[in-house]
Design a protein that fits this description.
Pfam families: Pkinase
CATH superfamily of the domain at 102-334: Transferase(Phosphotransferase) domain 1
CATH architecture of the domain at 102-334: Orthogonal Bundle
Radius of gyration: 43 Å
Organism: uncultured Aureispira sp
GO molecular function: ATP binding; protein serine/threonine kinase activity
CATH class of the domain at 102-334: Mainly Alpha
Distance between the termini: 72 Å
Protein name: Serine/threonine protein kinase
Number of helices: 20
CATH topology of the domain at 102-334: Transferase(Phosphotransferase), domain 1
Coiled coil: 804-861
């Protein structure tokens, strides 16, 4: 029997495969064989030296707080392969289970060439073979960023060990973040569980500095690794991979170059490289908005980690770069203004409305009743090459001539009768030899076997005929009515299908008209924006929406500011910026503390309320378990009890320290022995009325166990309710902290702008004023656009809702009619389940099944017999005599 492990939360027992299918430095991965519902998961068993109480606590924590949008429905893809439940072996922690994912490691696309054995499957991502390779890689980048954003949105996890080996990809673009049991868990800015490892090539520069905080506790750590991964995916080379010149010629490793900020495209350090590999040249073909994010990640972020773009920002920029309407519709909520309003798309009524289901339990009976066809034998003719023939030696011409002369002499010298007799004798001898021929014997054996099988076949045909007559006689008054009602149901459902199809066509026409209005409205506001005298000076482009214009304005402003900064650099330790950061950090800390304290008080109050309710829940039952207070229960059923018997029993129980019925482990009614949970035993036979005491003790114990089991279920339900309430509070806390984080970024940006005004003077002030004027104008246009769009498209939406409402009403009406017919069918279904009907049905099905099994055998033997059709005596003689 396979070894079984127990899941910590659900208590389910699972069995694993005998051998692991993968392994690593921390443990091995095993497939789950039972139960079936967990076969889409795998188990990770840690190596013995990797097990610890801290790891167990961490795994249980991860299982309790998965990423918010994690969806593990059947058939769903897991973009984050997260811990599901801890795994135990006889109470000892050994590992955990997680969803199974398949694919290749992202590293295959992070080199200049795709590995040869994978080029065919990954041709769409190959720059040399596919013109769409960059778009495909950008879409893959978007999926990676979306998955990481899903983890970061919890505000409690930092992945730390960010590298392509921990991302699994599929050819359809789906991604999975793996090895998530090694994440760092952070609450209120402090680490609860550390991440065990980090890879130097993906480690940010702050790791090499002396700081007053742990950089792995901040999301900015992951943002650097994400930037490196995306750069490698898009260009096939590390962003810091280049040969360094003076004064960095001694730096050879990537982590040394990261430490000194030697980003290949750093404007201030281009002279520091002696050789830059060719793959880096593709960087300047990338959309400028994406280039800007890489600059922020590796240059600005090198000085201030908080300036690195988040996974959410990467998603937004990649989405705009791809300009994919389907992606806008699905992911537009993560972008800024201008893309909240996507193209009007109306779901087809047939996709929104479920067709009414109906019973098909009697379909087979109806089919058997209506179908009189019998399984027939198939005729398969063998080809000429497959026909059997005699393997005999032909008579030579000399022998044939001598034989003819001999027969002629006998007829001439003797009589004609003698010649005829001689010929007959020769034919007789030939026939005897024919019967001894091996081919003839094989033919006879095949024909006899066929005859036996044919006899079985015709016998079975007769039996099926009788079974069918019996079956039809039993169902003659049931099946026709069922067939009529089923046909009626099918007609109604098919009619609804046809109606929904017609409405689908109407909705498509409506959507086409709405799209025309949308495009017209969109172009109107794009022209308004481009017509602005300041925006008109921005580099021209093919802008399809206001969001693209906003990005173009930002890019142009960033370029202009960079030019000013080159002449007069703005230092991060500028007094105004330093004071501003200190003030903002102090304000943020106070607000975070207030939010945490407020939510903490609410959580504590809920926990206290839960404990009080649980205590109250068990109070009455636990009081009833004390033996001293309810000693009379042991004599239940007896009218009078002597005080001496009571005292004797009381003293014996006090000596055993047997104070509560809950201390009993087992009661043996046959021997009278009672076993306590601490292993001690006593026998009730030593007491008066031992039989009565034993019976009542057993009843009392069983009753208490039953009550406690019922209360345990109530307690579990109560805990679940309070867990949900606490989860709501924690989500509320997370959302408030997230909005606080956005507020911090906005305030830091304001401080940076004010510092730049001080350092750069009037030129920057004028640039900033122009930038704010343009962005404010675009914001006004976006607001006006949304209002007008609501007015213009509202009529189309109301028409669409009207169509859907009509479809729903018709679907409900058909569903009610189908339900009424189903009720009528139920009456006939009861008659179908009559034993005699079921017996005749089973007999007919069994006969038909046996016939199906017999037919292949009959066909095979008939085919074999046809191969021997030329094996006859006349053919044998012809074979002997033919030339």
């Amino acid at each position: 029997m396979a070894k079984q492990y127990k899941l910590g939360k659900s208590g389910l027992l699972i069995s694993l495969s005998a051998k692991p299918f993968a392994g690593g430095g921390e443990g091995n991965l095993y497939k789950i064989t039972t139960p079936k519902k967990l076969r889409k998961y795998v188990a990770k068993l840690y190596h013995a030296h990797k097990l610890s109480p801290t790891r167990e606590e961490k795994i249980n924590y991860l299982a309790a707080y998965p990423p918010m949008e994690l969806d593990e429905n059947t058939g769903a893809h897991s973009s984050v392969v997260w811990v599901k439940e801890a795994l135990y072996d006889r109470g000892k922690f050994v590992g955990f289970i997680m969803p199974y994912t398949d694919g290749e490691k992202l590293e295959i696309l992070c080199t200049p060439k795709i590995p040869k054995k994978l080029r065919r499957d990954w041709a769409r991502f190959d720059f040399k073979k596919s013109p769409q390779a960059l778009d495909m890689r950008l879409k893959l980048s978007f999926n990676i960023c979306a998955a990481i954003h899903q983890v970061h949105s919890m505000e409690r996890y930092v992945l730390v060990d960010m590298k392509p080996d921990n991302i699994v990809i599929q050819t359809n673009g789906l991604v999975s973040i793996v090895d998530t049991d090694s994440v760092e868990v952070v609450e209120a800015g402090k680490s609860l569980f550390d991440a065990p490892v980090a890879t130097p090539e993906y480690t940010p520069p702050e790791h090499y500095r002396t700081l007053d905080y742990d950089p792995t506790e901040r999301e900015a750590w992951d943002r650097f690794g994400l930037g490196v991964i995306l750069y490698k995916l898009l260009f096939g080379i590390h962003p810091f991979a280049a040969s360094s010149g003076a004064p960095y010629e001694q730096l050879t490793t990537l982590h040394d170059k990261i430490k000194h900020g030697l980003f290949v495209h750093h404007p201030a350090k281009k002279s520091s490289f002696s050789i830059i590999p060719p793959p880096h040249k593709a960087f300047y073909k990338l959309d400028e908005s994406l280039q800007d994010l890489f600059f922020r990640c590796f240059i600005d972020g090198g000085e201030d980690p908080d300036l690195r773009p988040s996974a959410e920002e990467w998603c937004a920029t990649i989405l705009l770069t791809l300009d994919d309407e389907r992606a806008y519709k699905r992911y537009g909520h993560i972008l800024g203004g201008g893309l909240h309003s996507t193209k009007p798309r109306f779901a087809l009524p047939s996709s929104r409305i479920d067709l009414p289901s109906y019973s098909v339990a009697a379909t087979r009976l109806v089919e058997l009743n209506n179908n009189n066809d019998l399984p027939k034998q198939k005729t398969i003719l063998p080809s000429k090459q497959e026909l059997k023939d005699f393997q005999v030696k032909r008579l030579k011409w000399g022998k044939m001539l001598a034989l003819c002369i001999f027969v002629g002499l006998v007829s001439f010298i003797g009589t004609i009768l003698a010649g005829i007799g001689l010929v007959g004798f020769l034919v007789y001898r030939a026939h005897k030899t024919f019967k001894k021929d091996q081919t003839y014997r094989n033919a006879q054996r095949v024909r006899k076997s066929l005859a036996v099988t044919q006899k079985k076949y015709y016998t079975k045909l007769y039996k099926i005929g009788q079974s069918r007559k019996s079956f039809k006689r039993r169902v003659r008054r049931i099946v026709p009515k069922i067939a009529r009602l089923t046909k009626e149901v099918k007609g109604k459902v098919e009619g609804l299908k046809k109606y929904l199809k017609e409405q689908d066509h109407r909705v498509k026409e409506l959507e086409t008209k709405a799209l025309e209005q949308y495009e017209s409205l969109n172009q109107k506001y794009v022209k308004k924006a481009i017509g602005h005298r300041v925006i008109a000076r921005v580099e021209d482009g093919n802008y399809s929406n206001l969001a693209k214009i906003r990005i173009a304005i930002h890019t142009a402003h960033k370029k202009a500011v960079d030019e000013l900064v080159k002449e007069r650099p703005v230092k991060e330790n500028h007094p105004f910026m330093k004071e501003g950061k200190i003030a903002i950090n102090s304000l943020m800390q106070n607000k975070q503390t207030k939010i945490s304290d407020l939510i903490g008080v609410k959580v504590m109050a809920l926990n206290n309320e839960k404990e009080a309710k649980i205590k109250l829940l068990y109070q009455g039952v636990r009081e009833d378990t004390f033996i001293e207070n309810h000693l009379d229960r042991l004599w239940k059923g007896k009218r009078t009890i002597s005080d001496a018997a009571k005292e004797e029993l009381k003293e014996a129980f006090e000596e055993l320290k047997f104070t509560s019925i809950l201390k009993i482990y087992n009661v043996n009614t046959r021997t009278g022995e009672v076993t306590l949970k601490d292993g001690r035993k006593f026998n009730t036979k030593q007491f008066r009325d031992s039989k009565l005491i034993l019976t009542n003790l057993k009843y009392w114990h069983d009753e208490t166990k039953h009550q406690l089991n019922a209360l345990d279920k109530k307690r579990a339900l109560l805990k679940k309710t309070y867990r949900q309430k606490i989860s709501v509070l924690e989500n509320e806390k997370r959302m408030e902290l997230k909005s606080l984080d956005r507020f911090k970024r906005e305030e830091l940006a304001k401080v940076k702008i004010e510092t730049q005004k001080i350092v750069l003077g009037a030129p920057f002030t004028n640039l900033q004023a122009q930038y704010e004027t343009m962005t404010d104008y675009v914001t006004e246009l976006e607001t006006a656009y949304e209002k007008e769009e609501e007015l213009v498209l509202n009529d189309y939406r109301s028409m669409y809702e009207s169509i859907v409402k009509d479809c729903e009403e018709r679907a409900n009406r058909v569903a009610n009619e189908v339900e009424e017919i189903e009720e009528a069918l139920q009456q006939y279904n009861k008659k179908i389940n009559h034993p005699k009907v079921q017996k005749s049905y089973r007999e007919l099905e069994e006969d038909l099944a046996e016939m199906k099994q017999l037919l292949p055998e009959l066909n095979a033997k008939a085919f074999e017999a046809r191969r021997y059709k030329e094996i006859t005596f006349s053919n044998y003689l012809r074979k002997l005599t033919q030339d």
